[in-house]
């Protein structure tokens, strides 16, 4: 006699993994598109510099944004020089190793043009002659790159530089400086 065994019923198991994965990926896609759109429409292109007439036709350190880079000097040299120049009133932007990795013999000043008043003012702070490099930058900041042969800054630097009467100078937009987090060496 044969026993009748009931046939197992096929499970109507729903496969949830694929639809859930698709919903998650669609959510990520929508969130990325929303973020991109918001970034596009709310971008605030600030001016890099502002044309101004200078009082008394003099450019002073507080009107100059200066980046100090170490281009081959001892570790910590850029931060020491930046600290001295900050005490003289310069707005210090970045203090770091030279971004392109270039090595400099003594010192190099980079700015909008070789005769720009901001370059002349920074050059008046140095004991050694710095090589001026005009890179045509539009924000009128100055990069001071110090090398292995750099000695020091003058005890009393140039307090101001004369600009032609009635002329306007493009001064960089000064942002409040951010403190370097504890334990991080900028050099």
Overall description:
The structure is a single chain. This protein has 187 residues and is of the alpha/beta class. Helices cover 23% and strands 22% of the residues. It has three helices and nine strands. It has helices at residues 17-41, 77-87, 117-123; strands at 49-53, 58-59, 65-70, 91-97, 107-111, 131-134, 142-146, 161-162, 168-172. The strands form three sheets. A five-stranded mixed β-sheet has the order 4-3-7-5-6, with helices on one face. It has a two-stranded antiparallel ribbon with strand order 1-9. A two-stranded antiparallel sheet has the order 2-8. The longest helix has 25 residues, at 17-41. The protein is elongated. 26% of the residues are buried. The model has no long low-confidence stretch (mean pLDDT 83).
